[in-house]
Amino acid sequence: MTPILVFLTQVICNKPIAKCVASDPLYIKHSQYHSGDIIVAGIVSQFYRFSDLITFRRHPLEEQHDEITYFSPKWSYLATMKLLSTHDRFIPNYKCDAQTNIASVIVGPNPQFCHSAATILQFYKLPQLTYGSTPMVNNNTEAVFSYQMFPNEYHQNMGILQLLLHFKWTWIGVLFINNYSGERFVQNVLPMFPLKGVCFDFIKSLPRESFSSDIWNMVTRNFELYKLIMNSNATAVIGHGENQMMISLRMLHLIPDYVGIPANRKVWILTAEMEFTSLPFQRMMSIESFHGTISFAVSSKEVPGFQKFLQARNPISEKKDSLLRIFWEQAFQCSFPSSISNENFGNRCTGEEKLASLPSSVFEMGMTGHSYSVYNAVYAMAHALQAMHSLKVKHKRMADGMGVKLQTHQLWQLHHHLRSVSFNNSVREKVSFNQNGEIDAGFDIMNWITFPNMSFHRVRIGKVDPHAPLEKLLSMFESGITWPRKFNQTQPISLCNDNCHPGYSKIKVEGKPFCCYDCLPCPEGKMSNQEDMDDCLACQEDQYPNNGKDQCIQKDISFLSYKESLGISLSTLAITFSFITVLVFGIFLKYSNTPIVKANNRSLSYTLLIALLLSFLSTFLFIGQPQKVTCLLRQTAFGIIFSVAVSCILAKTITVVLAFLATQPGSRIRKWVGRRLTSSIVISCSFIQTIICTAWLVISPPFPHLDKHSISEEMVLECNEGSNVWFYLVLSFMGLLAFVSFMVAYLARKLPDAFNEAKFITFSMLVFCSVWISFVPTYLSTKGKYMVAVEVFSILASSGGLLGCIFSPKCFVILVHPALNKQEQLIIRKRERK
């Protein structure tokens, strides 16, 4: 029997109008607390705790039945009909007992029992106060007469979901009792979980079991279920159901003692409909598997006087409370003389045994959520009766020597007062119903701590506040949580697979739920700075991912600088070539009247040397931080200077050819040989390149540009060419001049002349063309400052090739073999050829 009912019986009976007794739903033998004629009858579910379960035995009138299942709704129908019948005489729908008029019924926690009782009670318009989850209401009539002492189940369901999200448990298992309540949970509640990112490894039902004879069959049937649970990598498992779920869970944890499957500790999440329950033979089973369990419970407080009342219970002095005597025998494993119990424990019950000495797995001394709901239900009924009694104009009085009586047909008026009831109970908590007949209360979140002596303690670690916004519905006190011992007091992880660390993103695994995924490294240029990101994120334009690709780093500004080794090397090389060019130019000026200098047009040699000097110096426009002026000049200056140099070489080559042809007898080409022709070639070619460069500057001029995308780790400060078409047009014209010069020089390489430059020009143009042909693919394949370095190197290499191939042989003759640099030597060499 639920101790709170008897306790409340005595408390309420002290009120002048709330005369009440408690009733045993199985034996229907009322306790003798008769002080009046108003009874608040309690149909309390048998599945409440150990103290209830031990009463599961056949009624003496039903001993002839072979198979009795005390989980069947028929026992609720039977108990309900007996409450409505004459005391100690069961005649359905017949009552002649004027002293046991029923004012209301308290029933729970199983929805099936609530529904069974409501099916009958609706015809009598009796209030039904339920302390379990929302009952199965099939019509409006049942709903009108039902009052829910259990808070709105929606808040519990949302609390479970937010609890999973709070601890990031996205891969879970679900066990439920195969009844209406369980099916409703699976069909209506669980589909919301995947919408919030929670997946299920398994959703399994536990069948509705019969008592006693099917226990070992239950173990056999649940063997495969146990293997499924223990082999699952889901650490968090929701247990939804009433107290028979607890019985089944305890049976499941008995399996490792008989089979070789190790117990893989789980974090059980139990609903508020469930209280800790034991069958008699389970009292010695270890409860260590429930250590760290998280359960929901109806918000409650300890009622003053409850502990004192429990400590004072004595079945010897309360002989008329038969249910208490049965409980006493089962709890203390003793027997009273002339006991109606079938068990004979051998030990005699003295009645002096103390409930506080029992392990909490057998009997909890504290007030549980269910007890608190029943407590509030009785007080709500008492206040409603008081309100109805006070309205003298709406009710007739019938006075006699026993006190005040109410006519049965007037009790339907009690609903009006019950729905509007509002009071503060003894712990100063407000009790009232909303418009749907539901009590305005929330849930506590409890953490179970077990001990070797079969006791356990529940610690409040959070709450569900129905008045808070949905996103703040759940509040947790994590510092007080005790986790299962396997986890060494670290928060358990319940995931399908390990988290994807920063630097990785999730990728779906074909054929598995979305909570199961693989991890893919972030691609180039992207990063992820959180776990389990669906996709990697691109950094801002001025940032780039680090090596771990888990954060963005500010990009440095890059350009070909004088301060770095590459810039220093190219600058040194340019200065060196410039110095050599000046030295060669000085040698040519000093020996300007010698035949080797005069040969092939002395003025063209001077112009070529000046052009090569300027080309070497033009490389300094490419080195250093790009500015608007340098961007405008670098490519155009390079193009014009190189066009002058190549046109000089072309003019030299044409001069050699024309000079040879002019020596032929009767040649008319002699008149073309002279400075006018060479000047025309140089000026015209340079002018064409100048026109191209001018048009480039007018139409699409180069400009400084900060390139943030070409190189992932740097921002390149460069000169944007404005239009690549004009840039390649400049190179193409220069290449055309070089190709023509190469071909003409190649044809003239064997012409008889003592100081013929055609051979040297041919080789120099071969070097020149090779450099610039290789420049194009190299330039296009590099990025950033290295593109500039490639162009600078090409300028230096091609200019150095021209300088070395054309002028080094002449300088060698001038400085090393001056004897060969004479007019007489020229005449001798001509005669030798003839």
The CATH superfamily of the largest domain is Response regulator
Report mean pLDDT, rounded to a whole number. Answer: 79
CATH class descriptor of the largest domain: Alpha Beta
Low-confidence stretches: 1-69, 398-409, 828-834
State the helix count.
24
Describe the structure.
With 834 residues, this protein is an alpha/beta fold. The chain folds into four domains: 3-152 and 303-432, Response regulator (Rossmann fold, 3-Layer(aba) Sandwich); 153-298 and 442-487, Response regulator (Rossmann fold, 3-Layer(aba) Sandwich), CATH 3.40.50.2300; 504-554, no CATH class; 565-833, Rhodopsin 7-helix transmembrane proteins (Rhopdopsin 7-helix transmembrane proteins, Up-down Bundle). Helix content is 41%, strand content 14%. It is built from 24 helices and 25 strands. The strands form eight sheets. The protein has an eight-stranded mixed sheet with strand order 6-5-7-8-9-14-15-16, with helices on both faces. A four-stranded parallel sheet has the order 1-2-3-4, with helices on both faces. A three-stranded mixed sheet has the order 23-25-24. Helix 20 runs antiparallel to helix 21 and helix 22 runs antiparallel to helix 23 (785-816). The model is unreliable at 1-69, 398-409 and 828-834 (pLDDT under 50).
